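User: Fold this; tokens only.

Assistant: Input:
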Amino acid sequence: MKLPRTPSFRLDGRRALVAGASSGIGLACAAALAEYGAEVVLAARREAALSNIAEAMTESGWAARALPLDVTDIGATEAAVAAQGPFDILVNSAGLARHGPALETTEDDYDAVTGINVRAAFFLTRAVAKGLIEAGRPGSLINISSQMGHVGGIDRAVYCGTKHAVEGFTKAMAIEFGPHRVRVNTICPTFVLTDLTRETFADPKRRKWIEEKIKLGRAGEVEDLMGGVVFLASDASALVTGTALRVDGGWTAE
């Protein structure tokens, strides 16, 4: 009797572009992909940080290099992806949050958050997909969304709006790119302890709200996302596209 075997989670021979790789979730995703054998291109605006990360990864025996890039510059981003691709894997973790009441949100706040969370994410995903389709290669494109792409949140009208938009274009792209064997999915974390969320967790009322909503009783750590990104990038998820992997501790279960 021939028993079925689990498809490989290994990523050897594949090239990954990770945007927002200089810290937090993006850094963790980059490390996970490199650990499982991918050659990782680390993209972000902070050149010095990227260089240090690439050096640390290389010292660990992983394949990584830095690509200073501002994803809000659509022309430069598309040119970089065209010149250095095709990439078999994309993880788009570049993002911005400016939380506050909707009645106090300025046009500048709105434009800044939507500019990176929606506009830049859309065109980066499209650019990597275009390279794969032109090369006739399959691929896995992963947008780091949020549990807030499925619910509402206090002082997060703009942020929630952007993440709902990411969920929408991810589904539409999955339908469009599916015939080309290019998969598109999102990962939706709950509140994760990073430098960017430190201010939120420092507020006792906000922390209480978070801990009450997360059914597993704790905030996320970046390590909680690493297995998910390897799964979605690998052959283990070969039939998964147009969906959201919610790493939210049960926040959206109700």
